[in-house]
Amino acid sequence: MSQPSYELLPGAGESPVILHVPHSARTIPADVRAGIELDDAALERELDHITDAHTAELAEAAAERAGVTPWRFVNRLSRLVVDPERFPDEREEMLAVGMGAVYTRTTHRDVLRQEGVDPGPLVARYFRPYARAMTEAVAGRLAATGRAVVIDVHSYPSRALPYELHGAGPRPPVCLGTDRFHTPAGLAEAARKAFAGCGETGLDSPFSGTYVPLEFYGTDARVGALMVEIRRDLYMAEPGGPAGPGVDRLATALAGLVDSVGR
After folding, report:
1. What is the CATH number of the domain that holds 202?
2. 243 - beta bridge partners?
3. What pTM value is reported for the model?
């Protein structure tokens, strides 16, 4: 049996908020590692660039500080295993740079997996169970509170990497990714206020969109969603270095957002 690829950490029964942390881990199972073309040193460098380091700890600290504890859904495997936030089919625009649900290229567009590799086994083994579990987590919040608010916790490098399709735009300290259907104006404004003390907050640049399980996507307005992309130089040494004092301020800001939208 493969190891669990995710963990749902319960919050307060009355909280509609799920902090979703999809890209914080570096763990790659040995059999998956065997299909990656990079040598060990190159793989470590790639993990430094691709991992949203310390975001799981940031979400944990925010949950501890929130007045009403949010739920947390945390990916425990690297996104180099599968990326749970991609579309698993031709709808995914990142296929253009070899970064669909199963990556074949690195952040610098080098070969990660052999071209033509069948993504099906990894999608079946990791992507679909993760998607089902996240769907169930959102359904649980809807059943308990009548609504759900998914807040994606990400980070991004201060300088654009070659894989970025929209890297030429602004790179504010905090980028908020939105969705026309699932991000009401009040949710984005609450985030702007919560992160005001962390520097400028921008919308949908260099990354846009939100994560909503496909069962609810575009059809159920009770599911709100927002992506929070934190520029890494605010809280850590790039790339892949230790966390710094900025984590404390960001955790307090994220807790403030949780409390604002969770009431």
Report:
1. 3.40.630.40
2. 236
3. 0.96
